[in-house]
Amino acid sequence: MTQPLIEIRSAPHVKAAKSVETIMRHVVYSLLPICAFYIFQYGISALASILVVTAACLLTERTLISTGTQAGRLSDFSAVITGLLLALTLPPGFPLWMGAVAGIVAIALGKALFGGIGFNVFNPALVGRAFVQAAFPTAIASYTPSFLAGRFTEFIPSSLALPLMMPATAADWLKAKNLDALAGATPLAKWKFDGVMANADELLTSLSGNMAVGPAPALILLCGAYLALRRFMDWRIPVAILGSAALTAWVLFAIDATRYPNPFFMLFSGGLILGAVYMATDMATSPVTPKGMWVYGALIGLLTVVIRYYSGLPEGVMYAILIANAASPLIEKVTQPTPFGRGAGIGRKRASYPLNPGYISREEASAVTPKKRFLHRKPKK
Amino acid sequence: MHETAFQIFVNTLLANNLVLAMFLGLCPFLGVSGRLETAFPMGMATTFVMLVASLCAFGLNLLLSYFHLEFLRLISYIVIIASAVQLVEMVLKKYSPSLFRALGIYLPLITTNCAVLGIALFQTAREYDFIQSLAFSTGGGAGFTLALVLMASVRERLQLSNVPDLVQGTALSLMLAGILSLSFMGFAGLGG
Amino acid sequence: MTSASPPTQGSIPVRPVTVVRATGPGGAQPPQKLPTAGMIRTLGLVSAICGVIIVAAYQSTYDAVAANKRIATERAVFKVIPAASSIAEYLALPSGEVALKVGAGETAASAGIRFFAAYDAHGQLAGVAAEGAAKGYADTVRIMFGYSPACQCVVGIGVVAMRETPGIGDKIITDREFLANFNALDVKLNAELSALANEVKAVKHGAKTQAWQIDAIAGATITSRAVGKAINDAAQALLPRLVPRLDALQQRSKS
Amino acid sequence: MNATVDIWDEFTEGIWRQNPVFVMVLGLCPMLAVTVSAVNALTMGLATLFVLVCSSGLVSMMRKLVPKEVRIATYIVIIATFVTVVDYIIQAVSLALYEALGAFIQLIVVNCIILGRAEAHASKNPPIPAMINAVGMSIGFVIGLFALGSVREILGAGTLFGVSLFGSNFQPWVIMVLPPGGFFVLGGWLLFFSWWARRKQRTQAGRTGEGTQHA
User: Which among A90, A211, A215 has a CA at the least distance from the CA of A146?
Assistant: First the structure.
């Protein structure tokens, strides 16, 4: 009996002496090169977008903390991460006022609603992104090509739309620059609506120019690898997401190569890499059990490919992650390791609520929440 | 246009989810989604009632349109649904008392679930044939269950977090439903 | 339900259980004598009152509803065939016959394809309008299109029902460039009159080269495609039946 | 004197104290689905008003005749009758409106407010108070629907009753007329009211001087 029999495990136990601030700070560090390259790609508009969105997030967070609505501190860097990620998912020429709306919604609806840092159920950046995607579908679909001449001196005109007003259409501006209106479509949109597939090198670095792509996937992978190596992030989730997306895409590609694009295109187009590395790995919104992480990642990968192929939108990562966020408590529950002594049976008991009618309408003020049974035996302080 | 049964099923399950896109069955959705243990059985019971009601409504509609009595449709549907719920209750009581005990308090609630009547009305309005109606009602029921289970999963977790007092209660549930509905928008156009 | 419980040995009281079971659909009432006659009388009375109310409402609104429906249909048809001044509703039956539709309660209607013949002020056939539907972005897009026998082309479309995204998908009603596609959209039949000569299809914005192609709205490709598919499917089904019989429709029949 | 107070009380109960939308949160399904514009919201509210008042009257008139065992069945049949009637009336008035509201007119049948009122109030009171209470309740419902519908229309289309408010260059917030917008706007109203109630409570507590202030 020399082997340890007892393994007590519950919500995240980080063995190293890392505080939340340390982790968050390193995530911000790792995001900086990506932002820098993004600004290099799109110029002054991208810079303004990143600044405005992040500022909106910080201001909202500050207001809500000072009114006591939400827990947390401004110095924990979490709002900065939300702002940076949100800005990276928006088109560079996204009107600044809409960016501010996205930032406010991200923090207020995605985070403060649930009580602040660590309690959010959905990734705040994605809540903000999904909100503006539904609210301003035209603006969010207008991308501009990267590496345009004069990008450091001139704003993309749609950026500077007056608050609450409609932005100028990107198509006219592009026409004035002698560019095809189609240059403004992302690789995914081009594939989905026109059947044009982008080349591998264009996707990987977007250095060949004139492609409307988001932040460079290769760089994101590099920065993600840094985080994973320093153990600031669990490597299982990105691996599971990319693996399951590649597998699904490969199976479909094998079935009908003319109709479906190759897995490589699937992985490196759109926001899949960014989502897999930075969004899905948000600790508060993903399962803590290793098995749960695999399930969670696989679900995201599968849903992404399904939405991209079969639904009306070209991009699906955001929705896949949001749905998986909602399912993550469920996944966690199913994949909970069996407590010692309970045996590996199906019929093992869990703490449960008694079934009583008062439970049906908990909204009513008079109804009381039944107490969890095991809480009764908890020693009183 | 002829939609295949599979398209209808996927469409009602995800893209046009009864609860999150059509706003049907919201009362039980907000009321019973507090715990997973109750959400899932409730979803299954509703699905079953939907199936029964949809099939009855299909037959009834044939009968009514044969006699040109379309103006009696609504009143007969509601009676049929009430009877279907009663029937399900009696059958369960006889053949599966344990399930009946587990569901006992929820079964009568299903009568006033507008999702059930909605299924019957929409399938008539869209002129679905028998197979299509079958797919529509099972898809609708599965979608209802899915929404309920996801919502319960989230709400169960929120019991452990310090949600601001101001938001507690229905407002929180509505906001959550809104975010879920937002995430389901990604499925728009699915099954087309 | 009422199966007698086996005689019990011992002191387990089985009887109350059977009583509860026997109360039936009424719910949880005390197991006393049920006022069955009263219940039936009340239900009968209620049904009678409700029946009277419903029938009265149905009868008194019938004309107004019918008139409304007719006006709505006429408006939709006039929109797609500007020259029209009166319409008649027909069914194109699978046998190749074209029948004037009478009354609202045709049970055999499922086999026929509904269309409207539109006549100008002199009673001459101005065009034919029919409905088509296809899956759009959010839900089914139902459109009405006008067909002109003279040029064998579609001369106008109108949207009957859709739930497309406001600001994007609903451009199919407002976008002039898109609507210009339907000034003369070619839906010629092939030599055997059995199918369309060319498939009507939406192509990406700016790529229209043929008269039977639809230049899609940039950014609303899916909805544009749905319109194309709706026209194609409906025309494919209707026109081979309709075109050989056009002569029968030339003059407005007295009905 | 007392009687008028009672009647006034019956009338205002539904408008504010027991507002079906904001206080009791009933009848959510039709409420969220049709409130994409102020006109739709008003029509839906008026249709509900008609059904609620008529069915309350009839239920109340028949309250002595109906045995307890079949009361729910009776109520549902009565409600369904009036819904059918209102369905035909709207068709006769405007087909466009009818199509905009779709199946949700028929779904008034399962609106919990109506059955709830029949069961909780009309079956225990004489016709006149029952109908007055029903009118108050429906006015409360109409106000709720209108509050939702107008916010969603103003933000979602930049118009109110079809009249443009901000000029043609306004960027509509499409989300407001989509399903999530419905949830968010209603949630927002509820938040607003609870914030307001709390503020009022706090100022009252401050005035009496015994309020221990902690949020």
Answer: A211
pLDDT tens per residue across span C19-28: 333 333 444 4
Q: Helix, strand or coil for residue B112?
A: coil
Tell me the pLDDT of chain C (255 aa) as tens digits.
333 444 434 333 433 333 333 333 444 444 455 567 877 888 888 888 888 998 899 888 888 888 888 888 888 888 888 877 778 777 777 766 677 665 444 444 456 778 888 888 877 888 888 888 887 777 778 888 888 888 888 888 888 877 777 767 777 888 888 888 888 888 888 877 777 888 888 877 777 778 888 888 876 777 888 888 888 888 888 888 888 777 777 766 544
Instruction: Please state, rounded to an integer, the average pLDDT across all residues of chain A.
Output: 79
Q: Is residue D214 part of a domain?
A: no
Residues 67-126 of D with CB under 8 A from C: 67-70, 73-74, 77-78, 80-82, 84-85, 88-89, 91-96, 99
Q: Mutation test of the interface with chain D: which of C61, C69, C140, C171, choosing the one with the most D Cβ atoms within 10 A? A: C61
Task: Give domain status of residue D136, yes or no.
Answer: yes
- Give tens-digit pLDDT for A144-177: 877 777 888 888 888 888 888 888 777 677 777 7
Quote the mean pLDDT of chain D.
Answer: 84
pLDDT tens-place string over residues C96-123: 667 766 544 444 445 677 888 888 887 7
Q: Could you tell me how far CA A275 lies from the centroid of its own chain?
A: 5
Strand C201-203 relative to strand C213-215, pairing: parallel
pLDDT value, residue B147: 94
**In the beta sheet, which residues pair with residue C99?**
C91
Where are the domains positioned within chain A? 18-142+144-184
| Distance of alpha carbon A232 from alpha carbon A218, whole angstroms | 19
Please tell me the total number of residues recorded for chain C in this structure. 255
For residue D77, being part of any structural domain is answered with: yes
- CA A269, CA A250: separation in Å to the nearest integer? 15
Chain A residue numbers with beta carbons less than 8 Å from the beta carbon of B153 are: 326-330, 333
Range of the domain at D180: 2-208
A354 shares contact with chain B (CB less than 8 Å): no
Q: What residues contact residue C146 under an 8 Å CB cut-off, 6+ apart?
A: C77, C80, C81, C118, C127, C128, C129, C154, C155, C156, C157
Domain span at residue B69 reads: 5-159+168-184
A312 with C168: Cβ contact below 8 A: no
- Rounded to two decimals, the ipTM of the complex is 0.83
Q: Which residues of C94-103 are buried (b: 16+ CB within 10 A; e: fewer)?
A: eeeebeebee
Q: Considering only CB atoms, which chain C residues are within 8 Å of B93?
A: 21
| Contacts with C42 from chain D: Cβ below 8 Å | 62, 65-67, 70, 74
Q: Using CB atoms, list chains with 3+ pairs below 8 Å to chain C.
A: A, B, D
Q: Which two tokens stand for residue C127?
A: 């065009």
Q: Which chain B residue has its CA at the smallest distance from D99's CA? A: B125
Would you call B192 an interface residue with chain C, using a CB distance cutoff of 8 Å?
yes
Q: How far is CA A74 from its chain centroid?
A: 21
pLDDT at D42 over 60: yes
C206/A181 CB distance under 8 A: yes
